[in-house]
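Lab notebook: predicted structure, single chain.

Context: the supervisor wants predicted structures on file for every construct in the current expression panel, including those that have not yet been purified. This is the next one on the list. No modifications to the sequence; it matches the entry in the shared construct table.
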Amino acid sequence: MAILKKGQEIGVCVHHSVYQAAKNLTELKDHAVKFNSWHKSKSWAEKTKTSGDYPYISYHYLIALDGSILQVTDEKYVKYHAGDNFRGDSSFNLHGIAVCIDGNYETRVPNDKQMETLVKLIRDVQKRYKIDALVRGHKETSKTATACPGKNIGTHDSGWLKKVITNTNDSNYPPKPPELTELEKCQLQLETLKKKNTSLTESLRVSDGALKLERERVEFLEGSLAVNDSEYKELEVERDRLQEERDRFEKDCIECVTELNDLKQGRDSILKYIGDIIYKLFKGKNE
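Prediction complete. Output recorded below exactly as produced.
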């Protein structure tokens, strides 16, 4: 179960991983998974377990060779990393922030990018907590002997770590790059314009390709439209022919009906005439 810090933050405790150093943030995330698995096996793992992607890691931050930094634990949580619970209010376990510079610094030498990142982090800690942060290596805090964070990182009063503290307090660090001469500015501007030109050329090439495809599509649609127009005209002709046939059929029907009516009228007249004759004959015979 996670332990929340109580009291004043005191500073930063520096560690190394003894692993092969991560070159960048991507590799640092891969290493964080390994650290989490390793620290999970510790006797105090469940006691200091937190939420997040790396609940068992005993550090708050990891730093890669290129200066990339990965926060793996919220600073508000206690992590057992410094071996100094016995120090009480001066304990980095209970009141400090653990930073692991990834790699084995018994053999490897830390670089300027890692220093710049660590300096910025310490300055940020001081600003947020309004403290003059203590900076110590693991070997300076632990009750039991340890080589961490390696001889090439050193301690707060010797070696690379001492230089980190000096640079943290130096307002001129990191040094600003020297002012460019007019020629260098022109060369830089020329390189920028060349890159823009290359980018525009590529964009133009892509646009030309897209325009060509669009033209081909238009041609296809125009061809389809021409075919449709031809078919439409043929359908109009067929429609007119059918209209004429329908009109002719209706006319023939009317004529047939007229003739049929005439025949019916003629038939009725003949029947009447025959009836009259029969009537007269029948009448004359009776008289």
